[in-house]
Amino acid sequence: MSPAARRALLALGLALGWLAAGFGCDTATDARRAALCRRALPALVPEGTTARLLRVGPGAGPRSVRVDYRLADAGGALLKGEEARVRFLGCAFGPGTEMTGLTTERGPVNGASLYLLRRYFLETPDAEAADPGKSSDGAAKR
């Protein structure tokens, strides 16, 4: 193999390694964003209800996550009218994993409420324990 061919293969290998490392970081960041958005759900559902996750995926904008869910009673039965209604959270993030915006089907959550949610709930062990994506039945209990 000629020296030029070796250099080309080495450059190709380095480029592929760089791309793979970059995609790995994005995947970890996306997973962290999805977890943070899911963890906001228990703080937002009405008292005495649970949330059944339907979908967690990319949101409408860049660096955003959308969580679709339905409300159920404490026993897990869907509330009246929930069969046809899909509720959602839309979470926007900055370049990292800091949540910069939160929207529900009722509209955007104001800045003060978002700050309090981030500061006093999302980064606590209680939020991790209440994460609806971690429970065995897929429900977020409140």
Fold topology:
Elements: H1 3-44, E1 49-58, E2 64-73, E3 87-93, E4 99-104, E5 107-108, H2 111-122, H3 125-129, E6 139-141
Antiparallel strand pairs: 1-2, 1-6, 2-3, 3-4, 4-5
Sheet/helix structural class: alpha+beta
Calculate the mean pLDDT score and round it. Answer: 82
Approximately how much beta-strand content do the residues carry? 25-35%
Secondary-structure element order, N to C? HEEEEEHHE
Q: Given the structure, what is the number of helices?
A: 3
Q: Which strand order spans the largest sheet, edge to edge or round the barrel?
A: 5-4-3-2-1-6
Integer-rounded radius of gyration: 20 Å
The backbone outline, from C-alpha atoms, is globular
Give the quaternary arrangement of the chains.
single chain
- How many β strands by DSSP? 6
Can you summarize the main beta sheet? 6 strands, antiparallel
Helix fraction, binned, reads 40-55%
- Low-confidence sequence ranges: 9-25, 136-142
N-C termini distance: 65 Å
Task: Describe the fold and architecture.
This protein is α+β, with helices and mostly antiparallel strands and 142 residues long. Strands 5-4-3-2-1-6 form a six-stranded antiparallel sheet. Strand 1 and strand 2 form a beta hairpin. Helix 1 packs across helix 2.
